[in-house]
User: Which sequence fits this backbone?
């Protein structure tokens, strides 16, 4: 039972004032502007959009500023904002095959059609603190010298399946494959290489039924794969990474290769009811991860690779990778694997992935529970009294 | 509509203001922010699933008393949606269309292409070829 409390208005008002002061910090320091957060703390913005389940970079930057950098609180603010808005409808499915890729790598294939683009990655940095960033400097001195901006093929081993020479034609005449990329034409999927040989399962086809939406109907278990992916896409990155890691360490059965990671921009198409045809309304940055996992086969199907899928707002490749591992781990039952670990238990994973739900239930413990506690204290007093009485009777009986 | 929606809001505003036109219009639906649930596909090409939402601003205007201009713009962008709806209405006027295409739509399209091309070139500079070194094997 919850009993409301009253009072404390003045203290709460003053606490809000102290909170505003803390948020501002030392007034001698310049105030953060939203575009600084959006441009220079972009991965924090992406994480808030992802966990807030709302693609809105400006609003996520505002939420981060308001929440003093607390990403869980910031995601909470986005969810609350989202609850104030009407729903216009559903987009056409985002065509990640037509993504304008800015990063695309494969851990499984050395040569893949369209080639590999490292993009802006920290994967190959030494993770040493760069003290030169500690002070603001002129822009040009912050950027790495653009000396080998356009490789002339000198580092290439001449891989013939790369779809074109590495920029050797120069920017004025881009290679056929890459100019198509800029125009939003399809970049072939790495996993299709295996599909052609039927060495890998194909993704499930659309049926004509409605696409389940967990924001409208909470999932009942067993959940479908669409509900699982929607829940994972908004799940807490830390929770997902921890569970995915557990599945790698043996608590589950993933053993994945990164078939393909791609990042870049995808156009959003929407069909307004008053028009009746789809129009582009903007574009979103996405991270998409496809993993290749170990084999399955039975009397009907020859052995073949299975796959896991991750898709996340922004440049969230760690999240997308964890999501792909969990998507695969959660298919244990479908693929006839023994379900023995937390990462394979969909009720466990899906019910605890959302950090707004979990932090809400956790943190409500800080609110006044005086009456509940008082009732428990009185119960304990009664128990103690009975215990003392029994002891006394036992002692008397012994004497 | 797509070009107007995909435009940079400041760029769109600058091009429209530069035309110096004054057009009578009244709202059919004032700029309104709502949500669109974005969908992905399982495995990139399979059955659809709901990925997460995005704010979208829509606006409909009656332009010069007869034509209805619509706009749907990703994000919380009332001013952008209003200008886009106005231009959508004006573009339906055959007399104005050629000039608007030339002065507004084409420059916006070109600017978007240039942005995409610059990003593509930046990405292209990170194209990589990994070698496989064979170890512990006598070469023939």
Assistant:
């Amino acid at each position: 039972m919850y009993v409301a409390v009253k009072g404390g208005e003045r203290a709460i008002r003053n606490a809000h004032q102290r909170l505003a002061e803390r948020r501002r910090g030392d007034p001698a320091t310049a105030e953060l502007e939203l575009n600084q957060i959006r441009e220079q703390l972009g991965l924090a913005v992406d994480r808030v959009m992802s966990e807030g389940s709302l693609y809105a970079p400006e609003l996520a930057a505002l939420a981060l500023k308001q929440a003093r950098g607390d990403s869980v609180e910031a995601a909470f603010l986005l969810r609350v904002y989202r609850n104030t808005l009407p729903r216009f409808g559903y987009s056409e499915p985002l065509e990640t095959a037509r993504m304008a890729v800015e990063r695309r790598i494969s851990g499984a294939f050395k040569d893949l059609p369209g080639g590999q683009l490292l993009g802006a990655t920290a994967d190959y940095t030494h993770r040493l603190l760069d003290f030169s960033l500690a002070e603001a400097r002129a822009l040009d001195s912050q950027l790495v010298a653009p000396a080998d901006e356009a490789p002339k093929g000198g580092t290439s081993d001449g891989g013939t399946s790369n779809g074109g020479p590495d920029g050797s034609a120069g920017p004025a005449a881009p290679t056929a494959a890459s100019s198509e990329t800029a125009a939003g034409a399809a970049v072939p999927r790495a996993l299709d290489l295996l599909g052609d040989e039927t060495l890998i399962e194909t993704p499930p086809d659309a049926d004509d039924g409605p696409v389940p939406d967990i924001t409208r109907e909470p999932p009942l278990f067993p959940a479908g794969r669409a509900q699982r992916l929607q829940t994972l896409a908004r799940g807490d990155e830390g929770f997902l990474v921890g569970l995915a890691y557990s599945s790698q360490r043996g608590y589950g059965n993933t053993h994945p290769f990164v078939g393909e990671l791609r990042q870049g921009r995808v156009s959003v198409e929407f069909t307004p009811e008053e028009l009746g045809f789809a129009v582009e309304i903007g574009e979103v940055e996405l991270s998409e991860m496809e993993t290749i996992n170990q084999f399955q086969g039975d009397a009907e199907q020859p052995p073949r690779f299975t796959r896991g899928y991750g898709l996340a707002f922004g440049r969230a490749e760690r999240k997308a990778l964890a999501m792909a591992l969990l998507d695969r781990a959660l298919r244990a039952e479908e693929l006839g694997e023994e379900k023995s670990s937390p990462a394979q238990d969909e009720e466990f994973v899906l019910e605890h992935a959302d950090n707004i739900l979990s932090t809400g239930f956790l943190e409500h413990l800080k609110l006044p529970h005086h009456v509940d506690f008082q009732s428990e204290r009185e119960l304990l007093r009664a128990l103690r009294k009975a215990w003392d009485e029994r002891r006394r009777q036992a002692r008397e009986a012994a004497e | 509509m797509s070009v107007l929606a995909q435009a940079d809001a400041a760029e769109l505003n600058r091009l429209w203001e530069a035309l110096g036109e004054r057009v009578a219009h009244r709202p059919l639906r004032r700029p309104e922010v709502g949500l669109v649930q974005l969908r992905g596909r399982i495995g990139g090409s399979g059955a659809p699933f709901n990925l997460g939402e995005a704010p979208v601003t829509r606006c409909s205007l009656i332009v010069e008393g007869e034509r209805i201009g619509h706009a749907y713009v990703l994000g919380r962008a009332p001013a952008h949606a209003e200008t886009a709806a106005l231009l959508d209405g004006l573009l339906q006027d055959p007399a104005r269309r050629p000039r608007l295409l030339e002065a507004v739509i084409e420059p916006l399209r070109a600017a978007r292409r240039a942005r995409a091309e610059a990003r593509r070139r930046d990405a292209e500079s990170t194209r990589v070829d990994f070698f496989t070194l064979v170890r512990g094997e006598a070469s023939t």
